[in-house]
Amino acid sequence: MQILSTGNEEIDQRLAGGIPHPSFIVIEGSHGSGKTGIALLFTQAYLRAGLRVTYFTSEGDSYSFINKAAQSGFDLLDYFSKGNLYIYNMSVGLSINENFANIMLKQLTNVLIKDIIKTEAIIIDSLSYLAEATADYVRLAIETFRRISDEGKSVVITFHPNSFQQEVDLMMKNSADGYIRLTEASIAGRRLKVMNIIKLKGLQSGAQSNITFDIDPAFGIKVIPIVVS
After folding, report:
1. Residue 52: which domain range?
2. 181-203 exposure pattern, b = at least 16 Cβ within 10 A, e = fewer
3. pLDDT band at 16 (very low <50, low <70, confident <90, very high)
4. Of 150, 182, 109, residue with least CA distance to 24
5. CB 89 within 8 A of CB 61
6. Per residue in 82-105, pLDDT tens?
7. I need a surface site. Which of 36, 72, 99, 146 has the fewest CB within 10 A?
8. Which residues contact 157 (CB under 8 A, 6 or more apart)?
9. Quick check: 183 and 213 in contact, CB under 8 A?
10. Domain assignment of residue 189, yes or no
11. Predicted confidence band at 58 (pLDDT cuts at 50, 70, 90)?
């Protein structure tokens, strides 16, 4: 297992070096809690280390995604242009029912199995987009993510709280190497985001488990030196 710098000195200091690779990490948080920002931080870490990344998003096409990432302080255009970043848009502009979610989730796992040779890290932001899928399909996807990680890749998944049945939710968190929970806090009238690292295999000694941050368009993730429990 390697420890990869995120490219953000403040975050690296609090993680005692960076993030582990390979690993299977799940990131849970409500809307606005910073899930995409943390997913982009992981993406930046993998790309900076010379790894190829496949990113599944529900935020529009490739260039829309690249532009939105830049607005959050993450410049990914060069990596995308050179073929080190693959972007798949999960959004189809239709309401997602159970049958359609099952098909989409099966297709997603098929793409991973078929194209896994060309990538070292996979980001899915967010799996909640396919929350209507039946438990069996979600369990199969989780087993696929775990197997891919065991083969030396990194898999990062974001999702909203209570998106899945409790049994599936627990399976995902228990089978993952890392579980990060994101919340929001109001301090002196300012809305901040809080990253709670519940577990993270390979995390170095001295790392902090509670990090308060905000997202600055000019800087990316900005650590706030306040501990919020």
Report:
1. 2-224
2. bbbeeeeeeeebbbbbbeebebb
3. very high
4. 150
5. yes
6. 999 999 998 877 778 999 999 989
7. 99
8. 25, 26, 27, 123, 124, 125, 126, 127, 145, 172
9. no
10. yes
11. confident
Residue with tokens 């996979």: 122
Query: Do the beta carbons of residue 48 and residue 74 sit within 8 Å?
Result: no
Amino acid at 150: D
Q: Count CB atoms within 10 A of the CB of residue 23.
A: 22
Q: Is residue 229 part of a domain?
A: no
CA distances to 101, 158, 197 from 95, in Å: 10, 20, 33
How many independent structural domains does the chain possess? 1
Token representation of residue 87:
């972007």
Q: Which residue has the tokens 């809307």?
A: 31
Structure tokens at 158: 């974001």
* Res 229 pLDDT > 70: no
For residue 213, what is the DSSP state? E
Integer distance in angstroms from the first to the last C-alpha of the chain? 30
What tokens does 130 get?
């396919």
CATH at 54: 3.40.50.300
Q: Residue with structure tokens 């308060």?
A: 212
